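To assess whether the prediction recovers the assembly geometry, we first specified each molecular entity separately, as shown.
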Amino acid sequence: MSSVVFEKVSKQYENGYVAVKDLNIELEDKEFLVLVGPSGCGKTTSLRMLAGLEDISSGSIYIDGQRVNNVTPKDRDIAMVFQSYALYPHMTVADNMGFSLDLKGVGKQEIRQRVEAAAKQLGIEQLLERKPKQLSGGQRQRVALGRAIVRSPAVFLMDEPLSNLDAKLRVQARAELSELHKKVGTTFVYVTHDQAEAMTMGTRIAVMNGGILQQIDTPQTVYEQPNNMFVAGFLGSPSMNFFSAQLIQSEGALVIQTDGGITVPIPAERLNRYSEFSGRSVVLGIRPEGIYHPQCVPPGIQPASIPATAKVVELMGHEVIVHFELADGTKFIGRLDPRVKVTPNEQINLQFDLTRFHLFDQESEQVI
Amino acid sequence: MDSNNVSLIFKALLAIFLGSFGVIGVFYALNILVEKAFPERARIKVLPWIYVGPALLLLTVYLIIPTLRTVYLSLFGPSSNEFVGLKNYIFVLTAPDTLTTFRNNLLWLVLVTGISVFLGLIIAVLIDRVKYEQVAKSLIFLPMAISFVGASVIWRFIYAYRPADAEQIGVLNAIATGLGFEPIGWLVNPAINNFALIAIMIWLQTGFCMVLLSSAVKGVPADVLEAARVDGASEVQIFWRIIIPMIMPTILVVSTTVIVLVLKVFDIVFVMTGGNLGTDVIASRMIREMFNFRNYGRGSAIAVILLIAVIPVMVANIRRFRQQELNR
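The predicted structure of the complete assembly is given in tokenized form:
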């Protein structure tokens, strides 16, 4: 059992800078929480406060129901994997992994057993007598993981552990980490700025910005039902297109009229939801994958025709990323099926999927 | 300012000018000479010697020849005209006077190296957490800027002794009498005078150790220390099991540097006690044998022994340096 609770946690540095503001998170046992956000959003600070490496300015952090604000890192029963791995350069891999057990006074025999078991799990048995200097980046990353696993801690903390790996290794390590989480069955708190890592590994993800928690939910919910424009724009690549618009009554129907002159009717099932906002300035958000070429419209969507000019065409192989421009110069991006050929400067009657659009209040940037 | 001084300053400037630009000129001229005089293939082989040559020549004239000559002289009598074999060495290694110098040097070696490196290390670690680090560091480093002779003059005042009924001008004895004790003869009491001298060297060297060790301590990455903290290490355990092993190469280099310096110590003893009252060390003994007692044979024999004592330390230092370069 290892639950983690952040209760109104804030961090203000001596120079007055507020890194984290009023953070509330409740984590149940065996969750894999990913803290994600741009750099400087407070995610690493939050993790370091949980680790005990950073003081908490106000609020409380509980691990297993015990308030740990004044508990030293070593007494929190946590293990941490650092971005730089932070291996002890003068110790062998085996000594690196067994260091915490040795400090706890565990016998040599048992340390050896546990280190070997962990090494086997990670496939690094043959490296145990080497020094960190003699290892590749991927191997070091495994040793850093091994050092955490050996202790069987209550909570695993990871601070961008994959960011120093090359792209291919990272994809592989991502899957391995998810598998490891299932195997060890402990709570993981993972910090990253990489949305792919967040989407693929987290059981829940917490999106942070400017020290404030924006949304915390399952990856799917956060992606499909973002709370605000920041979350909507942060997750997804290429990111969501935004069009500033007005919500107005036109000929008896509620429509969205963008500043660029496109008019999109509100589908019947959302009328109730938006009717009270009639007359407001809003932002229409639609993801690049919600935009279709007229020749490739799948069944089950509610298409709305929008004429646009293709400007830049990027063929990715499995998809085509096309930069479009509306008549008034508004730019947006579509992710199209690679089977239809799009040439630059071509006029296309694009189809926007009205089952998957988002409306935000222009002033508060919150979803409506 | 009288004309004498002006001409002195002028001469000094001229010397600096000639020294700096003369050397550049010599290299430049030699380079042209080689390029003109040798075919291209030979040039590549000759050119390095043109640049290394002057340094080798100077080292040979001022270091190697004197060393060989000293070894030679050590096999002769006081005025270098009768061959005495190893007699000088036997004397030096058996006479009570010189044995005292060896004992003292050993005492210096252990205490100065041990204490200044240890203090330097402690200060380096502690100072890392002080607010006015640069100021504190500068203060501790300051003695390094003072010559050994200058430091000795300062410490003569600190150790100054006046009879009990006179007014004390030495800081230590002023404190001692102020507290109601008898004044202490710091430099004349054989039980403590060696330690009094050693303290000066420690005062001079701690700053040097601290500065080098401090940069090594700062070189230990913060996240390695944090990893150790999360792993459950106390600050003391982090110091002994993480910081010390990680900065060991620097500790060894600093230690050997101090060891060589201590082996050669002379000025402090010479100024403070002149090597009397059981405070003689090898180097001061050597000077006394040579210039006070006019015994070139014995003086040279002591010099050779000193040289032999320094060699292993230097070899160890160079080896370690090479090892470090390899590990880069």
